[in-house]
Specification:
The complex is a heterodimer of chains A (292) and B (389).
Chain A: H1 2-17, H2 21-44, H3 49-52, H4 67-76, H5 85-116, H6 122-133, H7 137-148, H8 155-163, H9 166-178, H10 182-190, H11 194-202, H12 207-222, H13 226-231, H14 240-250, H15 256-282
Chain B: E1 4-12, E2 18-27, E3 32-36, H1 43-51, E4 58-63, E5 66-67, H2 73-76, E6 78-81, H3 93-103, H4 108-121, H5 137-149, E7 155-159, H6 167-184, E8 187-192, H7 195-201, E9 204-209, E10 212-217, H8 219-224, H9 229-234, E11 241-247, E12 253-256, E13 259-262, H10 265-270, E14 281-286, E15 291-292, E16 299-309, E17 314-319, H11 334-346, E18 352-356, E19 367-372, E20 378-380
Parallel strand pairs in B: 3-8, 3-9, 6-7, 7-8
Antiparallel strand pairs in B: 1-2, 1-4, 4-5, 9-10, 11-12, 11-14, 12-13, 14-20, 15-19, 16-17, 16-19, 17-18
Helix pairs in contact in B: 3-4, 3-5
The chains are: A mainly alpha (292), B alpha+beta (389).
The structure holds adenosine-5'-triphosphate (ATP) and magnesium ion.
Chain lengths: 292, 389
């Protein structure tokens, strides 16, 4: 304590006197490094293929066009053989919706039970969850394939393995563990049963946890590639991620403008989803009216 | 309105720790019962068992004549105020107060009436639409009270409800809580570790030590006739001076270190059992206010340590060449007590306290005779710690 209290005023005084240009320029360089690919993706999607690859000039195009988007939707993905953009979006959205919504329900309940309930095998179960967090999906993909091969080429099968998620359970578990138990006790004394307590007392105070899990699992499922690649072979059940892969494969000469455009189409929903839910991130749990 | 009766209640936690040992306790209708004891003695455990938040390992708890061991907290129809208030952060004050009523499916009109009334009693009317996060500590405390009183429950349970407030607010809320309890008139079980709070608030006070009930009595009785040396030292502030002493062979004098005090025959009349201790070592207890600088009678000469001037009185710390008896929070083993005695032998110098009139002429370092009101002294059995009456 003593150390920080003597150092802090010094620092403050220094920063008031001079702006740390060195640090700022370093930050600026990194910001550009990180943002440039995103910028390039977006701007490139509005350029002709030749211009998009035209070195540094691609960053400052002379004119913009919607041709890439047009050809994607009207020419490339226009038949039942290729599938349609609209179809890809529908599949991706449905799969994500099932995974995110189902996951929030299942995993929050599991995390809550682990954090609050006493039952036999509690420790073992918790350990199992933690172990499952570190097992990569690739390791279980093949056994899963055999288990679920009867359901190939459906929307549901693309979502099924990802609804229950050890990582989400663990996230919920740690959150609920840190929520003061007095809230639930007060609710019990007020006469609320376990379900009502969960829905009316816990849930409204767990928005940050729900938002985090929603964002993380959405990003994961929206861009998942391996599993849908294994489980789909018909264009009408392709998600976006598979379609973009096919686009690359099917072009005789790569059309980077179209690829950029498709990239944008893939990323925009993710960004939108993040923007909608991130405000709950910021809402701090510190606003809980429980002290001490 | 109902009474709370605990019969032979014990609690052993899952880890095998026994927090409560066979407690019998009755909280009468409308009574304000305070449970007091040092930290970790099991006060919260006891309260939580009554509330139904902890299971009862052994024994029986009944509320309003009904054994409630197997009732859920909701079915017991009690209201509880938590130390940290446990208000629902996402609900307005109004919703917080009304929550239990809505669960009980009361009509909207009735809920409205009760909430309004509670808000008026607690001067919360202006804050009904606010969330608890915006309120001050005292206001949150009131909301917690409001949540309890709208219920019109069979009993109130409160677990150190004032310990998060500053000293001034605490004193104010003490009387507010008492007023509300009188007004509602339901049995109240109130837990605190603050003996001043216990003494000032309780119709009766239960003293708990390491999960064992020590004494249940009015504050005055606890103070005047403590059952044992623990209660004697716990109740009263500053606490009672406790010294090793020996009654001489004919019982006329009490040897305290190198000094001695006369013991009148009347003392033995008042405490017949003391006869049996003639010629033996006992613990003598003298309250700080029973040591005076002026007056007549027997004196103990002590060397003055530091002096606290409180304005209305002086708290004088002084040392004697007699060993002090030290009461531990937990009933320790013989070994621990032995160790403790050695420690006290080393630190015996300034362990005694006297309350004397303000502006008395005392100076640190002086050797001063303190007059002892022997008729008000307490005696305790050395091995059991029980009072000798
Ligand atoms: N869930 C539990 N499992 C095991 N031991 C527990 C549990 N809860 C409390 N204890 C122990 O039981 C004893 C009594 O605890 P309790 O909380 O009732 O004390 P308290 O008198 O309320 O103390 P404080 O004044 O600090 O609140 C303590 O020694 C505590 O460590
Ligand atoms: Mg406690």
């Amino acid at each position: 304590m003593a150390v920080t209290s003597t150092v802090a005023p010094l620092r403050r005084r220094r920063s008031r006197r001079s702006v740390p240009w060195g640090a700022y320029s370093l930050l600026a360089v990194f910001t550009i490094l990180f943002l440039f690919p995103v910028y390039y993706l977006i701007i490139g999607s509005f350029e002709t293929p030749s211009e998009a690859l035209n070195g540094i000039q691609a960053a400052a195009p002379t004119h913009l066009t919607l041709a890439n988007y047009h050809s994607l939707s009207q020419e490339f993905f226009s038949s039942t053989i290729t599938g349609s953009l609209r179809g890809f979006y529908t599949v991706s959205t449905l799969v994500s919706l099932i995974v995110v919504a189902g996951g929030l329900v299942v995993n929050s309940l599991a995390g809550y039970a682990l954090a609050r309930m006493k039952f036999r095998g509690h420790r073992t179960l918790l350990l199992l969850v933690i172990v499952l967090v570190i097992i990569p999906f690739q390791a279980i993909a093949v056994p899963l394939y055999y288990m679920l091969s009867g359901m190939r080429n459906t929307v549901v099968v693309q979502a099924l393995p990802f609804i229950g998620s050890a990582f989400s359970i663990y996230l919920f578990y740690t959150f609920f563990l840190n929520l003061p138990p007095q809230l639930e006790e007060a609710a019990r004394i007020d006469g609320a049963g376990p379900w009502r307590t969960f829905l009316q007392i816990i849930l409204p105070n767990a928005k940050p946890a729900f938002a985090s899990v929603a964002i993380l699992s959405f990003i994961q499922i929206w861009s998942s590639y391996l599993w849908p690649l294994m489980m789909t072979s018909q264009p009408n059940v392709y998600p976006l991620s598979i379609a973009i892969g096919n686009l690359v494969k099917q072009q005789s000469t790569p059309n980077y403008g179209e690829m950029f455009a498709f990239g944008v189409l893939l990323v925009v929903p993710m960004a939108a989803f993040f923007l909608v839910f991130q405000r709950w991130f910021i809402r701090s749990v510190a606003s809980l009216a429980v002290k001490g | 309105m109902s009474e709370i009766i605990l019969r032979d209640v014990s609690k052993t936690y899952d880890n095998g720790y026994q927090a409560i040992h066979q407690i019998d306790l009755t909280v009468r209708e409308g009574e304000f019962m305070v449970v007091v004891g040092p930290s970790g003695c099991g006060k919260s455990t006891l309260l939580r068992m009554v509330a139904g938040l902890e299971t009862v390992s052994d024994g029986e708890i009944s509320i309003g004549g009904e054994v409630v061991n197997d009732f859920t907290p909701g079915e017991r129809d009690l209201a509880m105020v938590f130390q940290n208030y446990a208000l629902y952060p996402h609900m307005t004050v109004e919703k917080n107060i009304a929550y239990s009523l809505r669960l009980r499916k009361l009509s909207g009109q009735e809920i409205q009436r009760r909430v309004t009334e509670a808000a008026e009693i607690l001067s919360l009317t202006d804050y009904l639409k606010q969330r608890p996060g915006r309120l001050s500590g005292g206001q949150r405390q009131r909301v917690a009270m409001g949540r309890a009183i709208v219920r019109e429950p069979k009993a109130f349970l409160m677990d150190e409800p004032l310990s998060n407030l500053d000293a001034k607010l605490r004193v104010q809320m003490r009387s507010e809580i008492l007023q509300i309890q009188r007004r509602v008139g339901v049995a109240t079980l109130y837990v605190t570790h603050d003996q001043v709070e216990a003494m000032t608030m309780g119709d009766r006070v239960t003293v708990l030590r390491a999960g064992v009930l020590q004494q249940v009595d009015t504050a005055q009785t606890l103070y005047d006739r403590p059952h044992n040396v623990f209660v004697a030292s716990f109740v009263g502030s500053p606490s009672m001076n406790l010294l090793y002493a020996t009654l001489n062979g004919d019982g006329t004098r009490l040897q305290v270190g190198s000094q001695s005090l006369a013991v009148s025959a009347e003392t033995f009349v008042r405490r017949p059992t003391l006869r049996a201790y003639v010629g033996r070592e006992v613990i003598v207890g003298i309250r700080p206010e029973d040591l005076t600088l002026e007056g007549a009678g027997e004196t103990l000469v002590g060397r003055i340590g530091h002096i606290e001037a409180l304005g209305s009185e002086l708290i004088v710390h002084f040392g004697l060449d007699a060993r002090n008896y030290v009461v531990e929070d937990k009933g320790g083993s013989a070994e621990e007590v032995e160790e403790l005695l050695e420690e006290t032998a080393l630190t015996q110098h300034v362990r005694n306290v006297a309350r004397v009139a303000p502006r008395s002429s005392v100076t640190t370092g002086d050797a001063v005779p303190f007059h002892v009101s022997m008729e008000r002294a307490h005696f305790f059995d050395l091995s059991t710690g029980e009072s000798i009456w």
